[in-house]
Amino acid sequence: MSNDESRGSRIVPAIAVGALFAVFAATANAATFDAESAGFPADASVVHNIGYALFDLGAYDIATIPAEGFLAAFLIAAVALDVAVDGAVYLAKREEDGSVVSAVGRAFTDGGRDGGDRQ
Questions:
Q1: Mean pLDDT value across residues 85-105
Q2: Are residues 2 and 44 in the same domain?
Q3: Are residues 19 and 61 in the same domain?
Q4: Which positions ≥6 away from 11 have C-beta within 8 Å?
Q5: Would you tell me how many other CB atoms lie within 10 Å of the CB of residue 38?
Q6: 36 & 62 share domain
Q7: Is residue 116 predicted with pLDDT exceeding 80?
Q8: How many Å apart are CA 76 and CA 59, to the nearest integer?
Q9: pTM: predicted TM-score of the whole model, two decimal places
Q10: C-alpha 20, offset from chain centre
Q11: Residue 88 forms part of a structural domain
């Protein structure tokens, strides 16, 4: 494949990604994030209300926004991020001579070499 052919095959996805970014930017720019227009008090905080819902403090009438839906999304995102980190750690391990070697194993030790000040 020549250089001109590979450049032509990359230009279409680059334009598509740029157009998608432009659509997202225009949508975020046109959106209004006003709590009062949604029927909530002006000083309402979604973050505080997620915390109240997380610890089930809604019975004390301190929550101003019903945040159970936010809490579900928060917990689903937390589990997904935990799975991603666990998968990255699992994929970072490798085997050498039948034993598992960590990706950062030699960064914090001497790699198991003989000598040095070990006791």
A1: 73
A2: no
A3: no
A4: none
A5: 10
A6: yes
A7: no
A8: 24
A9: 0.44
A10: 20
A11: yes
